[in-house]
Specification:
Radius of gyration: 23 Å
Order of helices and strands: EHEHHEHEHEHEHEHHHEEEEEEEH
Shape: elongated
Structural class: alpha/beta
Number of helices: 11
Strand content: 15-25%
Strand order of the largest sheet: 8-9-10-7-11-12-13-14
Length: about 400
């Protein structure tokens, strides 16, 4: 975290500047930051596909035309801040050019929007070129491909950057609805008495997308659904839902409680996991003809703790499904009741994170004809398009 006595970064350098992530997320976030008066330092893109600065600016314009629209004044200022370095990440001259572009910057921020296999190479080149001195480094998920590679990558980075200058980001933590899960749990009294194994029957966390890999076949075939969204985005949601109250709201205290949750989950065995592919995935450009990488995954797990023992938790994620929606559904146990159990629908709490934002409570009420009826009470609802961009907030 940046403390009050630390300087703001005085240059922003992002690798993978012509890639899919930059096109869909980074350029729109940068324009919004400029418009809000939060960005006035050189912005240096590093990539190979754009020939020169003018082509890079055209890429930025196309990005904004397709994702959020162009604000003429903000885009003009952003265009003036843009710089471009074309080169190979294994070539030391690329990093000499970066050093030249950031000129006298004392605390540049380097953002690695590139495949994790390139993280180590870029970090080593930053150090050799002198760019790492006084700098911050921002690293996108996935962080390695398994525990061993993650530890190796961590060791490489920490030999060149102090811990307080390393930002391992999951953009899901910048989403307001995800932050609201934690706030909703711990800022309201009514929830805690039933937020445990005694009253909750099960939890479901679902991230469904009605589209495919959208031209990202090479990346996706090296990653898959579990590495792409389950072990980061959806486990972050799981931690927010199930952790104990942190003693403070600083990132370290929250992290400590999340770690306790993850330690209480036993390693999964094959019987607890279902993997699949959507039809036509192997025909996507960049995907191996015999690929076994999953585009759909479903997991069943349990948290072995006093609060959650015996409560099954189901996590699902997949592409080319009927809808696009990310939602948490917490089902409560049926009450011991004088009414027939068959006439009662279990109560539930439902959090929808996207495309709209909803908090709802499922309850039973009596119809005019004196039959029971399951209804939802909407506690909060915001339509799509009102959420501040997560990348803007994080950057």
């Amino acid at each position: 975290m940046t403390t009050m006595n630390e300087p703001h970064s005085d240059a922003f350098v992002f690798f993978g500047a012509t890639g899919d992530l930059a096109f869909k997320k980074i350029f729109p976030a940068l324009q919004t930051m400029v418009k809000a008066g939060r960005l006035n330092v050189p912005v240096v893109g590093v990539a190979r596909s754009a020939e020169n600065l003018e082509e890079f600016r055209a890429r930025a314009r196309e990005s904004l035309e397709k994702h959020g629209g162009i604000d003429p004044a903000a885009f003009e200022k952003l265009s003036g801040l843009l710089r471009y370095v074309r080169g190979d990440y294994n070539d030391p001259t690329t990093f000499q050019s970066i050093r030249k572009e950031i000129a006298s910057a004392k605390s540049p921020a380097f953002y690695l929007a590139i495949p994790p296999t390139l993280f180590g190479t870029v970090v080593e080149q930053l150090e050799k070129s002198g760019c790492a001195s006084g700098a911050r480094i921002i690293i996108e998920k996935p962080f390695g491909t398994d525990r061993t590679t993650a530890q190796q990558l961590n060791a490489i980075i920490m030999r060149r950057f102090p811990e307080e200058s390393i930002f391992r980001i999951d953009h899901y933590l910048g989403k307001r609805p995800v932050q609201n899960l934690q706030y909703f749990r711990f800022a309201n009294t009514f929830l805690d008495p039933f937020w445990n194994r005694n009253c909750i029957e099960s939890m479901q966390i679902t991230m469904a997308e009605d589209f495919g890999v959208q031209g990202r076949g090479v990346f996706y075939d090296q990653t898959g659904a579990i590495r792409d969204v389950v072990q980061n985005h959806l486990f972050q949601i799981l931690s927010h839902l199930t952790m104990e109250p942190p003693v403070r709201t600083d990132s370290e205290s929250i992290r400590d409680e999340k770690v306790k949750v993850l330690k209480a989950i036993e390693p999964l065995n094959p019987k607890q996991v279902v993997r699949g592919q959507f039809r036509g995935y192997r025909n996507e450009p960049g995907v191996a003809a015999n690929s076994k990488v999953e585009t759909f995954a479903a997991l069943r797990l349990e948290i072995h703790s006093w609060r959650w023992e015996g409560v099954p938790i189901y996590i699902r994620a997949g592409k080319c499904l009927p809808v696009t929606s990310t939602e948490i559904f917490v089902r409560l146990r049926k009450p011991p009741s004088m009414y027939p159990a068959s006439s009662l629908t279990p109560n539930h709490v439902r959090f929808r994170i996207s495309p709209e934002i909803t908090v709802a409570l499922g309850v039973m009420t009596l119809n005019p004809d004196e039959t029971g009826c399951a209804v939802e009470m909407i506690a909060s609802h915001c339509g799509p398009g009102v959420e501040e961009e997560a990348y803007q907030r994080l950057l």
